[in-house]
Design goal:
The protein is an all-beta fold and 182 residues long. It has no helices and 14 strands. A hairpin with a 2-residue loop joins strand 8 and strand 9. It is globular and about 45 Å long.
């Protein structure tokens, strides 16, 4: 299993592991494998905690490689709130990238696609964010002034990738970075 993140699996054919099958850069990536018959639809999920940003510009970058059956959700949360408050959120189902229920673009299967999310916390409400999507070998698409899933979002301390598929499928994650962008 990969280190540095929380892994949530049921061990019923689902898994999160480091693999050398494919990589966006270097020689390894994280493979998130879903399976039918899991108790919780949000498993497996892969979570980064330990950051706590409330002010300034922050950037999150990562690369994904999906399969045709991939169904995933990615989001930032303020996990300290009760119930938690969701900020930037995107889903990919049937190769279609959606934010806030709106389809933004098709995501190719079997190829690496780079994602970049940038927002400034602490200056305005609601917080808006920018998403940049770059399939390998293609131009970058930029989507500005996207609304958070919850208008009360003001801080990020949880970042997660959730597989929502109900069939045997997988997706790959590489080059994850979350940092101040100043």
């Amino acid at each position: 299993p990969p280190s540095g993140a929380e892994l949530h699996v049921e061990h019923k054919g689902d898994a999160i592991l480091v693999t050398d099958e494919t990589a966006a850069s270097a020689s390894q990536s994280v493979k998130i494998i879903d399976a039918p018959g899991l108790e919780h639809s949000y498993n497996p999920h892969y979570v980064y905690r330990g950051m706590d940003y409330t002010q300034g510009c922050v950037r999150n970058r990562f690369a994904l490689r999906i399969e045709p059956q991939t169904s995933l959700q990615f989001e930032w949360r303020d996990w300290r709130a009760s119930p938690y408050v969701t900020g930037p959120q995107l889903t990919i189902r049937a190769g279609r990238l959606r934010v806030g229920g709106r389809e933004l673009q098709v995501v190719p299967t079997g190829r690496w696609v780079r994602f970049e999310i940038v927002t400034t916390l602490g200056t305005a409400r609601p917080v808006t964010w920018t998403l940049r999507v770059t399939p390998d070998g293609e131009a970058t698409n930029e989507f500005r002034d996207l609304a958070p899933a919850n208008a009360d979002f003001t801080r990020v301390n949880w970042v997660g990738f959730t597989s929502l598929a109900t069939d045997k499928t997988a997706f790959y994650l590489d080059d994850f970075a979350f940092e101040p962008a100043g």
